[in-house]
Amino acid sequence: MDSINIFIKAAFIDNMVLAYFLGMCSYLAVSKTVKTAFGLGLAVIFVLGITMPINWMINTYLLAEGAIVEGVSLEFLRLILFIAVIASMVQLVEMVIEKASPSLYNSLGIFLPLITVNCSIMGGSLFMVSREYSFGESVAFGLGSGLGWFLAIIAIAAIREKLRTADVPPALRGLGIAFILTGLMGIAFMSLTGLNPADFTK
Amino acid sequence: MKKEQNIYLYVVQLTIVIAAVLAGLYNVLDPIYKQNRNAAKKEAILKCVPIVKEAQLASVADVDATFKTNIEAIAIKPDGTIFKTIEEVNAARPSMQPYESFSNIDLGLEEKIDEKDRVYPVYIYKQEGGNYYVVTVRGNGLWDKIWAFVALEADLNTIAGIDFGHVGETPGLGAEIKDSKSFKDQFIGLKVFKGDNVALTIQKKGIKDKDHDVAVISGATVTCNGANDMFRSGFNHYKAYFSKVN
Amino acid sequence: MAEDVKNIAVEEKEATIAFGAKERKLITDPLHLNNPLTVQVLGICSAMAVTSQVYPSLIMAVAVVFVTAFSSLIISLLRNSVPSSIRMIVQLLVIAALVQVVSLVLGAFAYSAYESLAVFIGLIITNCIVMGRLEAFAMANRPWQSFLDGVGNGLGYGFILVAMAVIRELFGKGTIMGLEILNPIFGLFGATYTPNNLMVLPAASLFVIGLMIWVQRGLDDRLVDIS
Question: Which of A57, B190, C110, C111 has a Cα at 20 to 30 A from B82?
Answer without folding.
Answer: B190
